[in-house]
UniProtKB/TrEMBL annotation, chain A:
This is ATP-dependent DNA helicase II subunit 2. Single-stranded DNA-dependent ATP-dependent helicase. Involved in non-homologous end joining (NHEJ) DNA double strand break repair. DNA-binding is sequence-independent but has a high affinity to nicks in double-stranded DNA and to the ends of duplex DNA. Binds to naturally occurring chromosomal ends, and therefore provides chromosomal end protection. Required also for telomere recombination to repair telomeric ends in the absence of telomerase. KU70, of the KU70/KU80 heterodimer, binds to the stem loop of TLC1, the RNA component of telomerase. Involved in telomere maintenance. InterPro entries: DNA_bd_Ku70/Ku80 (IPR006164), Ku80 (IPR024193), Ku_C_sf (IPR036494), Ku_N (IPR005161), Ku_PK_bind (IPR014893), SPOC-like_C_dom_sf (IPR016194), vWFA_dom_sf (IPR036465). One of its GO terms (molecular function) is ATP binding. It comes from Tuber melanosporum (strain Mel28).
TrEMBL record, chain B:
Its EC number is 3.6.4.12. One of its GO terms (cellular component) is chromosome, subtelomeric region. Residues 1-12 have a biased composition (Basic and acidic residues). This is ATP-dependent DNA helicase II subunit 1.
Length: 665, 645
């Protein structure tokens, strides 16, 4: 479990914060709040009850704090007492965080820190908490450093991390100096800095002082949740492997789950039903007590009693047993199917650690053993693919030159290009020269959703923000490499001569090509020569509709024949539905429609399909095909066999909305 | 068709869980295989199962091609029940004296008769226990086999056979994604004298092509004819597109197919090749080629169990229907009324469907190479899920194959990998992948076991990596390492890991039991577990070395115990325990947990397990070797389960 944490934000709400800096286009408070909201919502998104937040405002119009009666604590308000921060708190806080109008004199910054320290002391008492105070100010208010040492002393005693960030504060390291700084602000900056640095005396690194711009620039950087390794399972004591513990190493972190909701909290109710043979399509409710557990064995249902169930589970003992060793170069890296686990000696078992160490060193010079699942024979799909370095013709001849094979010239250019795109030297920052290492890359979806949810919580009515650059940084090659490889790439592009196929044409029948068997035999010619007397325009038979239909389209150029084919197919479809025993023929209906849809798009006559479908729907809706056949229409919907839209073919005017209405209406 | 379906059009779906979708896609694409086996005198003649090895070792008698084909079909049937439980299979014998053709489904004006010498042994359907049992008996019992498998006196009309196949697929496997016909025959020219019959066969074969039925012929070597010449008949029957990726020239060309080869060839073709995605591979700005992605390794799980109602005539699967109710009013909610939200700050944050889509949008699908690294940069521990395989696809970009091949050759030669930004499908989450080249490998029988191409290995993000465990490093001295090296050397597997040698024992056992129950067979006594180490062999090769290592470890461990004793009392206790063997260790463990045990037992008797602290519950569960994860309610349930059950 993560440590408990309490954070109090101390926010300057003086009238000076309503100043709008020309280069930023928002007032200084809003600028500061960019940082504050990000921090607060990040805490909220963990949903942890033990990560609590409090907020203190100073230079406020009113006074509301525990020491309000004491001198020097005027115009300081506790805007939110320490607690788990929920969306309601956030809304309240948002209303409260506006620059004050009056020119109130009070609202000393150090006093505000005092209040924050007091809040933390009361809340955390002596319990184990990480304690933080985050101060944001523009440094134009009152900062009376008298008695400051006492505060520092208390901060050190409590071990509170104090972060002080100022709007346009000077920061040499970050490289920012404000021009024309007013003397009062310059003095305040010094005083605050001195106080913060004083916290670091005595061996504890508690204080951080900086300019707000730097803090804001780092907000896009994803925060990593520290995940402790998870102990998987203690291994069986009966084997020699009780000396090992397994730890999972990289479980994939997922974006948070989406609960379902609509205004109210939904609960789900489950009912159990079986098909009832006595009524067509009828269902019968079953009580839970009437049910057994079972499995499918092919089409057969095998009910299994609780005792039999136990037999179906293979008895195994937990443990790792070595089958043999494989040389590293013989291990096919792509066999790895799972996340990996690290194996280390059991805690405090030195003998085990030593035994394990001897194995590890006999294999690699590494410090831990990693395991990963490899496929069983059942896990492998045996798809076969032709070789890439030679082409065999249908007649079995092996070709060395072919349009599928690269020329030596292209191979040479490819080699040059690959060599120039070396990521091992592509990192421009100091340190590691390797680019795109695991610890530099962050899950785009995870952090993007996180960002958006937090954004929406604070800005309910604004459009979604842009994704942070870091999330898309690795979606393109680094600029450094692109620079040096441009020439090599251009040459490669020219030599490889890849041509994009126009997607509109890709599906079209090119010149009404006839399909030919392997021998290349012209089946059409064969048929004509064999039986010249048979008229081509034989009717499409309901026993063999799809081949007949395709054949009919192939052998004609006439629009009227295409229309005739559509008509005949409609008749076949109606017949199939009409004589269908329950849903027996619906699959065939869908298949026929699918073929017709594809063919009419390819033959550039989508209108014929649309007419056929409209007629068919009319027939179904009017129940003229032997009663209620809406289930057939459901199948048509499910298979997405609606009207052909203008997105699919330019020759029709049906838009998506109309197609939807037709299919679902 | 009667199953309940979700009516949301797919492209509006937001992809929440990719893995789930992967398997979903596969289950939606149904597949049907029909075996058509030629029954003739030569096909029934016993033949040596070539290349001897297996056949001779098992001392089996020579089998006929028909019997081998049926056995093979039976094997495919069994393995598909596990791997593709929703797919259909059927067996049609042709050339038999007997005729039986009564495919169910009916309607649509099915032509009766006209299928002389076609015998539908197993109607195309998801196999059931009865059919499987019938087939099994046929294979095992010559008395059933012989009367049925009598060749006809006249040549069967292949046109009729093809039309029979047409009708079977049309009625039984309508609207299937994939329909394949496996023809097993040794007759290369069935209609050598009858041109008209040959022509109508050619037409009927084209009908099958139009129906989307793919014909995979398996030609058997016919000694009487001196070979098998596919150009005489079958080259006019079989259709292949020029870009067809499937490599089957082997069977068609050699014209001489040995039985064992047929078996492995049929097996490898029994899973239809399906692309997981079609995508673009961008090698650099302006250089884009087309690729298709496949899933070659995927964990095969047991099919899920169902609730079953046995009160009726036949056992029936019970369907669970979930309805959403408003909590307060108990009003049934329509699916369209349910929206998704994120939990935040104790409330729910809602988004419009457009926004839900937009927030996951990182651009169009692409596999964009951002540069290259040496293969060693993809460390062993950097893995999260099975790799996808990609192969060039010419349909969108002409010239893809040669560019792909050039890149492949370079990466293989230099031992490099590509690093790429990958959005595999629309709405899929972006991933960083390593592009690893694979080199083609053939098995002993010449059938490909590893295809050439690229594997996309999903690399973990920084978010996915957990901290390394804290451990006390005890470096083994050289003497111990050297002894272990000797062991490792002895247990070397020269060929590497070969998945086909290792069946998943728990999966096999599960289905073995189901089969026994379904077919009313005797329960098997012992599971066959090929994954167990071959201990006898290991002992023979490495036994001495292992023992030497063991005694060296004991010697060294003696020195270790003292510093351990200083670090903590519990450690000392344990390190002495290790010296003991089996029993004492267990006993001490039981004592350790004893105190808590009593308390837990007492609480359980009093019905107050829930009042115990989480620490106590965990200690007790840990002591029993049970899972200690989860919330308190889970722990309590587990404790109660352990005591109650």
């Amino acid at each position: 479990m993560a440590d408990k944490q309490a954070t109090v934000y101390v926010i300057d709400l003086g009238p000076t914060l309503s100043r709008v800096h020309p280069s930023r286009g928002e007032c200084d408070l809003d600028y500061a709040l960019t940082y504050i909201w990000d921090k607060i919502t990040a805490t909220m998104s963990t949903g942890r009850k033990t990560d609590v937040i409090g907020v203190v405002g100073f230079r406020t119009e009113n006074t509301d704090n525990a020491m309000a009666t004491a001198d020097g604590y005027e115009n300081i308000c506790v805007l939110a007492p320490i607690s788990q921060f929920l969306l309601d708190h956030l809304r309240d806080l948002k209303r409260a965080l506006v620059p004050s109008r009056g020119k109130g004199k009070g609202g000393d910054g150090f006093s505000a820190i005092c209040i924050a320290v007091d809040m933390i002391m009361r809340y955390c008492r002596k319990l184990k908490y990480i304690r933080n105070i985050v101060l944001v100010t523009d440094g134009r208010g009152e900062w009376d450093d008298e008695g400051c040492e006492d505060i520092v002393g208390q901060i050190q005693e409590e071990g509170i991390n104090l972060t002080a960030l100022g709007v346009d504060f000077d920061d040499e390291e970050y490289g920012f100096v404000e021009e024309g700084k007013v003397p009062k602000k310059a003095r305040n900056e010094k005083v605050i800095k001195k106080m913060v640095e004083a916290c670091n005396e005595g061996g504890q690194e508690l204080g951080i002082f900086g300019t707000l711009a730097e803090a804001i620039s780092e907000l896009g950087k994803p925060r990593l949740k520290k995940i402790r390794p998870k102990r998987l399972r203690p291994l069986s004591p009966s084997t020699s492997s009780d000396i090992l513990a397994l730890l999972s190493r990289n479980p994939s972190v997922r974006a948070p789950i989406l609960p379902k909701l609509r205004g109210w909290d939904p609960v789900n109710a489950r009912a159990y039903q079986i098909e009832d043979g006595t009524t067509a399509g009828g269902m019968m409710d079953i009580e839970k007590e009437q049910m057994e557990k079972g499995y499918n064995y092919g089409r057969t249902i095998v009910p299994i009693s609780a005792t039999d169930e136990a037999i179906t589970v293979l008895e195994t003992e937990p443990g790792l047993r070595i089958i043999g060793f494989v040389p590293v170069e013989k291990y096919r890296r792509y066999f790895s199917m799972s996340t990996t686990n690290a194996i280390v000696g059991a805690k405090d078992n030195l003998k085990a650690s030593m035994a394990l160490s001897s194995l590890i060193h006999a294999l690699f010079e590494l410090e831990s053993l990693i395991d990963v699942q490899v496929p069983f024979s059942e896990d492998v799909r045996h798809y076969r693919f032709p070789p890439l370095d030679k082409v065999k013709t249908v007649s079995g001849k092996v070709l060395e030159k072919h349009r599928f094979l690269p020329t030596p010239h292209v191979e040479k250019l490819m080699s040059d290009y690959v060599d120039k795109m070396d990521l091992m030297v592509a990192n421009e920052d100091e340190g590691e020269p390797e680019y795109a290492t695991v610890d530099e890359t962050f899950s785009p979806i995870l952090h993007r959703i996180n960002q958006i949810v937090r954004w929406r919580a604070v800005h309910p009515d604004e459009p979604l923000p842009l994704a942070h650059d870091i999330l898309t940084k690795y979606s393109y090659p680094p600029k450094t490499l692109l620079g040096v490889s441009t020439n090599a790439l251009q040459k490669l592009i020219e030599a490889s001569d890849v041509k994009r196929v126009d997607p509109k044409l890709a599906g079209r029948k090119r010149g009404r090509e006839q399909p030919a068997p392997k021998s290349g035999l012209d089946v059409e010619a064969l048929l004509t020569s064999a039986a010249p007397s048979v008229p081509k325009k034989a009717k499409i038979s309901s026993a063999n509709p799809i081949p007949d239909f395709k054949n009919k389209l192939r052998t004609t150029e006439d629009l009227s024949d295409l229309k005739e084919a559509g008509k005949e197919m409609l008749a076949v479809l109606k017949e199939l539905i009409k004589y269908s025993l329950a849903d027996a023929n619906y699959g065939r209906v869908c298949e026929i429609l699918k073929v017709m849809r594809e063919e009419y798009i390819e033959y550039d006559e989508p209108g014929i399909y649309n007419i056929v479908l409209q007629r068919l729907k009319e027939a179904i809706v009017s129940e003229e095909l032997d009663g209620d056949r809406m289930e057939c229409w459901d199948g048509i919907r499910y298979n997405r066999l609606g009207l052909i839209t203008k997105g699919e073919s330019e020759r029709v005017e049906v838009d998506d909305a109309a197609a939807r209405r037709f299919l679902w209406g | 068709m009667a199953e309940t379906r979700k009516w949301t059009p797919k492209d509006d779906d937001v992809n929440e869980d990719e893995e789930e979708e992967d398997s979903q896609q596969y289950s939606n694409q149904k597949d049907a295989i029909l075996f058509a086996i030629d029954v003739s005198t030569t096909m029934l003649a016993p033949q040596e199962l070539d290349d001897g090895d297996e056949g001779k070792r098992k001392g089996s008698t020579p089998a006929s091609a028909v019997l081998t084909a049926l056995r093979c079909a039976y094997g495919v049937l069994q393995s598909r029940i596990i791997s593709n439980p929703n797919d259909m299979m059927g067996i049609l014998l042709f050339g038999t004296e007997a005729t039986k053709f009564d495919t169910g489904g009916g309607g649509g004006g099915g032509v009766g008769g006209g299928y002389e010498h076609c015998y539908l042994l197993l109607d195309l359907d998801i196999p059931d226990a009865e059919g499987i049992k019938g087939l099994k008996n046929l294979i095992e019992d010559p008395e059933e086999f012989e009367p049925l498998l009598k060749p006809a006196k006249e040549q069967v009309s292949m046109a009729n056979v093809f039309f029979a196949v047409n009708q079977i697929f049309t009625t039984k496997a309508a609207n299937f994604q994939s329909r394949r016909l496996f023809i097993v025959t040794d007759e290369d020219d069935p209609h050598s004298t009858d041109k008209a019959l040959k022509n109508s066969s050619v037409t009927r074969a084209r009908d099958l092509y139009d129906l989307g039925v793919r014909i995979d012929p398996f030609f058997i070597y016919n000694p009487a004819k001196g070979g098998f010449d596919s150009s005489k008949f079958y080259d006019d029957i079989v259709y292949r597109s020029p870009t067809d990726e499937e490599d089957d020239y082997h069977a068609a060309v050699s014209g001489k197919m040995r039985l064992r080869q047929m078996v492995s060839s049929i097996k490898s073709k029994s899973t239809p090749k399906r692309a997981l995605f079609t995508n673009k591979l961008e090698l650099g700005p302006g250089l884009i080629i087309g690729v298709k992605g496949y899933l070659l390794f995927k964990r095969q799980e047991k099919a899920r169990s169902h609730y079953v109602y046995t009160g009726g005539e036949k056992a029936q699967i019970v369907k669970g229907v979930t309805t959403w109710l408003a909590e307060e009013t108990a009003k049934v909610a329509d699916k369209t009324e349910i929206r998704k939200a994120y939990k935040f700050g104790g409330e729910q944050i809602l988004f419009t469907p457009e926004e839900m889509k937009a927030m996951r949008d990182f651009g169009e699908p692409v596999i964009r190479i951002i540069g290259f690294k040496p293969a060693s940069a993809v460390r062993f521990d950097m893995n999260v899920k099975p790799a996808n395989f990609i192969y060039p696809d010419e349909t969108g970009y002409i010239g893809s194959t040669r560019v792909f091949a050039a890149l492949h050759a370079k990466l293989v030669k230099d031992g490099k990998v590509g690093i790429a930004w990958c959005i595999s499908r629309k709405n899929a989450a972006p991933q960083i992948v390593a592009i690893l080249p694979s080199v083609e490998e053939l098995g002993d029988d010449g059938v490909q076991i590893i295809p050439p191409g690229f594997f996309l290995v999903h690399l973990p993000f920084a978010d996915d990596v957990r901290q390394n465990p804290e451990t006390k490093l005890v470096r083994a001295p050289a003497s111990l390492i050297d002894r272990m090296r000797a062991v490792v050397k002895q247990l070397h597997m020269p060929k590497g890991y070969i998945p086909d040698k290792y069946s998943n024992p728990s999966l096999q056992w599960h289905y073995r039991i189901l089969q026994a129950i379904a077919l009313d067979e005797d329960m098997p006594a012992q599971p066959v577990d090929t994954t167990l180490p071959k201990y006898k062999l290991i002992d023979r090769h490495a036994g001495t070395y292992c023992r030497e290592w063991g005694s060296e470890l004991e010697k060294l461990a003696g020195n270790l115990a003292i510093p351990a004793a200083r670090t903590s009392a519990s450690a000392a206790k344990r390190s002495t325990l290790v010296k003991g063997e089996g029993m004492p260790r267990k006993r001490v463990k039981a004592e350790d947990g004893g105190g808590e045990g009593d308390e837990v037992m007492a609480a359980w008797r009093g019905g107050g397990v829930g009042r115990l602290t989480v620490a106590k519950l965990k200690a007790w569960l840990g002591g029993k070797g049970l899972d200690t994860d989860g919330k308190k309610v889970d722990l309590v349930a587990r404790v109660e389960g352990a005591l109650g059950g």
